[in-house]
Structures are given as C-alpha cells and as structure tokens.
Write a structure and sequence with these properties.
The structure is a single chain. This protein is mainly α. It contains 7 helices and 2 strands, in the order H-H-H-H-H-H-E-E-H. The protein has 2 domains: 59 residues, 434 Repressor (Amino-terminal Domain) (Orthogonal Bundle); 45 residues. 60% of the residues lie in helices and 3% in strands. Helix 1 crosses helix 3 and helix 2 crosses helix 3.
Length: 124
C-alpha cells in the first residue's frame, strides 16, 4: 500500500477531514489532499508529525512495514485461535473441512514466517 492510500485510511479511521488533520499537524488541507493523491510528499518533519499523531512508525506510513507498531497483542486477533475454534468457516461459499482449515493454518503460518524473515532482512 502506498503512502497516500495508507494516510487516507488512517485519517478516515479517526473520522477526520483533510482540514482537521491538516490543522492538527499544521499543514494545509491542500497538502493533505496532495499526499493522499500521491502528488506531493511530506517533508521529514511532517512525516514524523503524522506518524506521531497516528501512533505508527514512519516505515509503516511509507509502506516499508505492513503492521503498525501501535498494534499490541491485546489488539490483535489471534488467527490461529480462530482457525482452531469450532466456528464454521467458509471460503467462496464452500464450508471448510477440518483438513482444509489445518491446511489454511499451515499455509498462513509459513507465509507469516517467510514475510517476517523478509522484513527483518530489509531492516538490516
């Protein structure tokens, strides 16, 4: 996800207008609009102000990291617990069997660790 899309998503999650966000971080509505449309890039000070306001890292805002650091374990839904639960699940209108649920869990676990490894190698 690019910076503009991520910024717009965060702004809307706080139910803010572009004007309100601009007032909070001391930039114009036109600047916020330009960032969201990908026509402008914020300077370092503005980027830091946005990250501080939304309680995320600048890397998250810039799309270098897919999980905001503000998410803690209490906020996250443990997907493995959902997959292990007795709740019926479906995909494409078809109910998953126990074997299919286990396959989904195995695939997601593999992808999670693969992405985690890639993220850590990018940080170096």
């Amino acid at each position: 996800m690019d910076f503009g899309t991520r910024l717009k998503e965060l702004r809307k999650s706080k139910k803010l207008t572009q004007q309100q966000l601009g007032d909070i971080i001391h930039v114009s509505k036109v600047s916020i609009s330009g960032y969201e449309r990908g026509e402008r890039s914020p300077d370092r000070e503005t980027l830091t102000a946005l990250a501080d306001y939304f309680n995320v890292t600048t890397d998250y805002l810039l799309g270098r990291n897919q999980t905001p650091d503000c998410a803690d374990k209490d906020d996250l839904i443990e997907l493995d617990k959902i997959l292990d639960s007795n709740v019926d699940m479906a995909y494409g209108g078809e109910t998953l069997t126990d074997e299919e649920r286990q396959r989904v869990k195995d695939i997601l676990t593999g992808l999670f660790w693969e992405f985690r490894k890639e993220d850590k190698s990018k940080e170096k």
